[in-house]
Design goal:
By secondary structure, this protein is of the alpha+beta class. About 15% of the residues lie in helices and about 40% in strands.
Length: about 180
């Protein structure tokens, strides 16, 4: 009887092993997608600032001001519609941004400090707050682009026009307010 069982096992092994060699292992079940809620975050290119931020400083009469916030919008300046860019040391309240671009109430009251840029078809104009020092140029910023509703730029000026009393080195990315 033991011989019969041994022979059966051998026979089954000879028949089953080649048959099993052609079988594929069962694939694991595919994971089911899990519903998640994620915020859509705009993808920034390497080295770019996130929209709404400025990075750099300006010097006004020996005082160095660090700039952190960037805002942009269209407004009337010098008799024509221009792009106005405000770079500030403190945030502007969201409900006050449009008015600040139009009339600079907080900058003029010295509640915040910063640079006010006006860019139009004739070039660029910049005013330092506080101090009210102004410069204009037929050139635009060192780097300047408007892509959809985002304005990006870089400006550097060593202060040579003002004997070093007013200088700036800034980079920014601002959303254009409507």
């Amino acid at each position: 009887m033991n011989r019969l069982i041994g022979t059966s096992v051998c026979l089954l092994s000879v028949v089953m092993v080649p048959a099993c060699a052609h079988m594929k292992p069962a694939a694991p079940p595919e994971p089911k997608p899990v519903a998640t809620r994620q915020a859509v975050i705009p993808v920034e290119r390497p080295g770019e600032l996130p929209v709404g931020q400025a990075n750099g400083t300006y010097t006004a009469k020996g005082q160095v001001v660090e700039l952190k916030y960037a805002y942009a919008g269209k407004a009337q300046r010098f008799g024509e519609e221009s792009m106005v860019i405000l770079l500030t040391d403190k945030p502007i309240p969201p409900d006050a941004v449009a008015e600040e671009i139009k009339s600079q109430k907080l900058l003029l009251a010295e509640s915040i400090r910063g640079l006010e840029y006006v860019i139009d078809k004739n070039g660029m104009w910049v005013r330092f707050h506080p101090g009210q020092y102004q410069e204009s140029s037929g050139n635009k910023l060192k780097e300047y682009s408007v892509d959809g509703d985002v304005v990006r730029g870089i400006d550097e000026n060593d202060g040579s026009l003002s004997d070093g009393r007013y200088a700036r080195s800034v980079k920014f990315a601002a959303a254009v307010v409507k």
